Amino acid sequence: MKFSRFLLFCLLSAVTFLLASCKEETATIGQKAPEIAAFDLQGNKVSLQQWQGKTLLLSFWSETCGACISELKTLEQMQQRYPDKIQLVAINVDGEKADTQAIVNKRQIQQFVIKDQMRITAERYQLVGTPTAFVIGPQGKIRYKFEGLIPQNELLNLFTQG
């Protein structure tokens, strides 16, 4: 009986600690961008700090979203035309069972792709659907959120003005 109380105490303490240490992060324009919880296609953890000091465009996409694939191709073209303005990061949200590398190869996606296999990043960024994109400024604050395709005039402004 004494041991089970001790075990229960330890379990409750651990749960309380975990809940207290897991801060809830959500994406809000004008606020610091939530950390991403994703991996590159080689299985390495990715962090926003990798792009600290740069303007970053996070593009959430899914293989089953034709508009997403089309927009990724457009973003790649803009990146080639204006290589030093924005760092593109394509975040695949198809889940852990999807073979994202095969999708990237099949669709000939040339930009940096990461996988949000547990959808933690999608949750932090309050993703409703794809495509959805966020622009994060050099200081790490969210500048813009685009749900659906980024309008052409906005896209041109992003790449020409940074």
Could you walk me through the main structural features you see in this protein, from its secondary elements to its overall organization?
By secondary structure, the protein is of the alpha/beta class. It has helices spanning 2-21, 66-81, 100-107, 120-124, 152-161, and strands at 38-40, 45-46, 56-61, 87-92, 112-115, 132-136, 142-147. It has a seven-stranded mixed beta sheet. The longest helix is centred in the N-terminal third of the chain and has 20 residues, at 2-21. The protein starts with a helix and ends with a helix. Mean pLDDT is 87; it is low at 6-22.
Return the string of H and E elements: HEEEHEHEHEEH
Q: Evaluate the radius of gyration.
A: 19 Å
The biggest beta sheet reads: 7 strands, mixed
Classify the secondary structure makeup into a structural class: alpha/beta
Strand arrangement across the biggest beta sheet:
2-1-5-4-3-6-7
Mean pLDDT: 87
- Assess the beta-strand content as a share of residues: 15-25%
Spans of 5+ residues with little confidence (pLDDT < 50)?
6-22
* Helical stretch tally: 5
Helix amount, in percent? Answer: 25-40%
End-to-end distance: 65 Å
Using the alpha-carbon principal axes, give the shape. globular
Number of strands: 7
